[in-house]
Specification:
It contains 9 helices and 4 strands; from the N terminus they run ααββαααββαααα.
Length: 322
């Protein structure tokens, strides 16, 4: 995750994730992409943000190590340090990590590491290749990185000897792999929620500032208690309107995702039926088979719906049942 090479497995701006084993992944991907598209980010800019995030995290852990080392030395607790024969520092002893809450890449979740790194060293001006970058964009990019990791695990499996990723012959997953996919999806959800919340806060701050500047415009404008009350009411209404708009946008996005998911499921059924139409005496018999097959993959569709798909396809393609 630290090097962000996963974009070779998932384009950050286009394409879709498979609907199995977790169809929610595409929804999360769409939410993250929406944030970046609103900022008109290119693929190169997204890669630059990902690279900068990796750099910030690496520098943060280096800073954390130096800071904790100084604290331990100031407290004269040298017994918590591993040193060489000349007394040069090598590493912290295990008990030091608990006593001084030392954060490292090994004991800090990726999302927590990003949060700590941004709090410590985020500087929009430092990223010259990306204009006016916001902190919430880092979280949106991070969500896509998690999902790119997810996409890689769908297509490849980790081989231990020799170590490396090898392409799967079949898309079947061990329980441990499903758990890992679920973990990556959960992390992506957390990251995109961070991004959405920070973006909402940023928008409110901008509105607040604009209203204050409006009140203060002109010569010797005096802001009265009534002015503040009116401003507070306006901001409250704005927040409520924004929340309503976000819910509507989310609902529309989820509807689009659901419709696309249904189209994908329907197409998978019809593709298989096209190759095996002679196996079935009727659309109802074919529906019996495909309803069971879909259920085995955790997908619920009514018998009537599937039968209608097949009946329409057979009629349009001149297929007659026996």
């Amino acid at each position: 995750m630290r090097m962000y090479s996963q974009f070779e497995h998932l384009d950050p701006l286009k394409g879709q994730l498979p609907w199995a084993p977790f169809h929610e992944a595409q929804n999360v991907l769409g939410r993250a992409r929406s944030i970046l598209r609103l900022a008109n980010r290119t693929g190169a800019e997204i890669q630059a943000i990902a690279t900068d995030a990796a750099y910030l995290i690496e520098r943060y852990f280096e800073h954390e190590k130096e800071r904790k080392l100084d604290e331990i030395r100031d407290d004269q607790k040298y017994g918590l340090l591993e040193t060489d024969e000349d007394g040069n520092f090598i590493d912290f002893k295990s008990e030091a990590y608990d006593e001084y809450d030392i954060h490292t890449a090994d004991n800090t979740p990726d999302l927590d590491a990003l949060t700590e790194a941004l709090d410590w060293g985020f500087d929009p001006a430092a990223l010259e290749d990306v204009k006016d970058v916001k902190d919430y964009e880092y979280y949106a990019v991070y969500a896509i990185c998690f999902l790119a990791d997810y996409a890689r695990t769908l297509e490849f499996k980790l081989q231990l000897n020799p170590i490396g990723w090898v392409k799967r012959e079949k898309r079947t997953y061990e329980p441990s792999e499903v758990a890992q996919l679920g973990k990556k999806l959960f992390e992506a959800i957390e990251a995109v929620c961070f991004a959405e919340r920070l973006r909402a806060v940023d928008r409110v701050e901008q509105k607040y500032q604009a209203k204050i500047e409006k009140l203060q415009a002109g010569a010797a404008v005096r802001i009265t208690a009534e002015d503040y009350e009116r401003m507070r009411d306006e901001i409250k209404r704005d927040l409520q309107a924004e929340d309503h708009a976000q819910r509507r946008e989310r609902s529309e996005a989820n509807n689009n995702i659901r419709h696309q998911e249904n189209r994908n499921i329907k197409q998978s059924v019809l593709d298989d039926f096209a190759q095996n139409s002679r196996r079935f005496d009727s659309a109802e018999k074919a529906a019996d088979h495909y309803v069971d097959e879909l259920q085995s993959r955790g997908i619920e569709r009514s018998h009537r719906t599937v039968a209608d798909w097949i009946r329409e396809y057979a009629r349009n393609n001149g297929i007659r049942f026996r």
